[in-house]
Specification:
about 850 residues; alpha/beta; 3-stranded mixed beta sheet; globular
Length: about 850
Amino acid sequence: MTETLYAAPSPPEVSIVDAGGARYPLDASRVRAVVEQACRDVDGVDPAAVLDACWPCLYDGMSAAELDEALVMSARTLIETEPGYSRVTARLLLDTLRGEALSYLAAAVAGGSTAERPGASHRPDQEQMRERYPGYFTAFVHRAVELGQLDPAMARFDLARVGAALVPDRDLSFEFLGLRTLYDRYLLHDGGIRYELPQAFFMRVAMGLALREDDPDRRAVEFYELLSTFRFMASTPTLFNAGTTRPQLSSCFLTTVDDSLDAIFRSYRNNALLAKYSGGLGNDWTPVRGLGAHIAGTNGKSQGVVPFLKIANDTAIAVNQGGKRKGAACAYLETWHIDIEEFLELRKNTGDERRRTHDMNTANWVPDEFLRRVVTDGEWTLFSPDEVPDLHELYGHAFAERYRAYEHAARRGEIRVHRTVRAVDLWRRMLTMLFETGHPWITFKDPCNLRSPQRHAGVVHSSNLCTEITLNTSAEEVAVCNLGSVNLAAHLSGARIDDRLLESTVRTAVRMLDNVIDINFYTVDEARAANLRHRPIGLGVMGYAETLFAIGAPVDSEQAVEFADRSMELVSYHAIDASSRLAAERGRYESYEGSLWSEGILPIDSLRLLAGSREDGECDVDTSTTLAWQALRERVRQRGMRNSTVLAVAPTATIANICGVSPSVEPVFRNLYVKSNMSGEFTVINPCLVEDLKRHGLWDEEIAAELKRQDGSLATIDRVPEQLKRLYATAFEIDSRWLVEAASRRQKWIDQAQSLNLYIDTPSGRALDELYRHAWRKGLKTTYYLRTRAATRVEKSTLDRADGALNAVPATVTYSCGTGDEDCEACQ
C-alpha cells in the first residue's frame, strides 16, 4: 500500500438501514477501517482513493447491503488505473461475504431466522478470522449436511483436523473477477444467502474427492493445498458438485447417435440428463441418414439430419444447469455426409429457422483423404451413411481405400444417394462459414484416431464441446472425461518452471482426477460403463501467457515455441508416470491390454503412426525430446496405466478466472479490456504489463488512457520500448501460425487434444486456407474458435470529470464474423 496521496473528503451524514429495518448513523470509522484493511500489503493502492470514490455514492436511508455494494463498486472503478485495486475490490467483497456467511450460521445455530440477508454484524478482521475459521468450518459442514446439500459422509471427516489445515490468509489472494465468480456461481447458499467461505469451498471440494481414500483426512489436506494455492484447479463440474449429494464431477460427455428414431430421441434424453449436472456435450451425428435417403419402414424419403439437430439445439438451451451456466452441446458431422452443405449453414442468421441452430456449436470431422483432394484439386463425393455405414468406423489408409471403392460403386449406379462436388469448393465453403458464423470448427479425424491410445477399443467419432477430448464412442458407450488444469504460473521459480514442484502437483492432480471416476454420479448407464472401463482423465494447463511474460518470450518467437514444447514435455512425463504409479497401487484400467500403452507406445511415439499414414509433405512435426523417456516406457510396461488417457488442454475460461491467470494456452486477448460472462462485466488489465511499465517509469494516467484508446494495444504508443511492445503483443497482433507451431509442439506430448483458438486481424480466403492447411500438416488433432478483430469487447474512457480522472464508460459491444461468446464456460 502506498502512502496516502491526498485526504479523502469528509463522509456524508447519512443513515443506514439494517436488515431488520432499524436506522443508524453511518459509521465512517468502520468504513475507513474496512477499506484500509483491504488495501493492506497491496502495492500501488490508496485507501483514500477508494473513499473518495465511495462517499459521493452514499445517500440517506440506503441499506447495509447497498453500502457494501457501494464500496465494492467504488474500488472496481479504479482497477483500470492500478491492477492492485482488483485485489482490494475482492477483499471488500470478501468482507461482505464473511458478514453474510457468519451471520447466517450464527442465526442457524441459535435457531433464529435465516430468511433475511444479514447486516453488518459478524464481520471479523483478518486477524480474528484466522482464529475463527476452524470453528466456522465445522459449523458450515454440519449446516450443509442438515440442509441436504452435502453428503452426510462429509461430516464423518475429522473436521477439527481438516479445519485446522485451512489457511485463512489465502482468502486474500483473489482478484475481483475470481472471487465474484465464486460468489455468484460456486459457493453453497441457502435461499440466495452464501454461507460457504472460499477456504471452506476449497476444502469441501478436496474432501469430496478424498471420500474413498484409505486416509481421507490426510488426502483432503493434500488436495486442499493444491486448490487453495491455485497450483491446480479442478474443472467447474467438480467444483460445483464435489461433496454434494449429487456429485456429478465429470466435464465432458461424447455420444454417437445411431440411425433410428429410438436412438435419436434417446440421445435427446441423455443430453438433457448429462447437461443437468454441468456436463458439456459432443454429439456424433454422422450415422444418421441424409436428405433423400430411403426409409424402409415407410417407403419414404428422409429429411436428413438437420431437423434432428434443431431439436438437439433446443434441448441444450432448455437445460441451463440450474442457472449456473448455459447448457451447451456441439454436433459433429463427417465431411463426406450428404448433408454436409446444409450442416455448414446451421449457424447462419438467414434462411429457414426450422433448419438453423443458433445456440448449438457445430464442428467438421475432417478425414485426411478430403484434404488430399483439396491439395490436388480433386473431386469429393458425398454419401448418405445408411449406404456406406463402414466409413464411419474407418480412418487412415483403410478409410481412403474404402471411400474410393464407394466412389467407384456410385459411378456404377450401385449407390442411390450421392453427389459429387469439387473438394476445393467445399473447403472454401467450410472456411467461409467458419469466418461468417464461427462454425463449424475444423477438427481432424485421422490424427485423433491414429494416435489414440485406445485404438483397439473403438473409433473416435468426434471431439467434445471444446475440441480437446478425443475418446472412442459407440451406441453402448458414452465417453466421459474428467478434467483439471495445472497453473503453470504458480510453478515459476524466477524465469523457469520448478520441476520438482510441478512433479508434486501433477502427481497429486492425477490422483484427484482418478478419484473422480469412482465417486462420480452417473446420470446415464452408458457413461458409467465407459468411464469405469477406460478411466480417462484430461490434465491440462493454464497461466501460459504469464509464464511467457516471466521468461521474456514473445508469443511469436522460437523461444516461446521451445517453451511450449519443453513445458508440455514436463507435464506429460509426470502425468504418465503418475498414472503408472497409480496402476501399481490400484490396478490397471480394464481395457488396458491391447492399448498403445501396453505396447510401449507413448504419445510422443504415436507420431510415427501418423507420419506412416501420410504422404510426403503432409506431416511436418518436430520429434525432439529431452527427458528420460525410455526409462518411463519400461516403467509403463511393467506397471501399466491406471488411465487410458491422461492429458487434454481445455479452455479453462472460468477456473482461470478463479486463479487470476490467463486461460489455457491463450495469448493475452487484450492488455486492457472488458470481459463479459454470466457474472457481469469486468475490467481486465494485464498486471504483468503494468509492472514492466512501472519498472521503465512509464505507468501513469496518460499511458493508461492511451492504452484504452488503442483497445489494449501498445503498438502505436511511442513511449513504450519495442521490446515491451513485442512481449505484450495482443492476440490479433500475432501471426496465428506461431500459435499453430506452439500447439504442434504441445500436441506431440498429449494423448488427447487441445482447445486452440486462432486469431486473424484481417481475414481473407487465402489466409484462412493457408492457416488451416498448416494446422493439418503440423499434426494438430483439432482447432477451436476462429476469432476476428471485430468480435472484441472493449471499454473506452473519457476525461470529462472535473478532476480529470479516468471515467469508465462501457463501449457498444460489436459481434461480427464468427466468434460468438468470448469464453466457453462449459468445459472448465
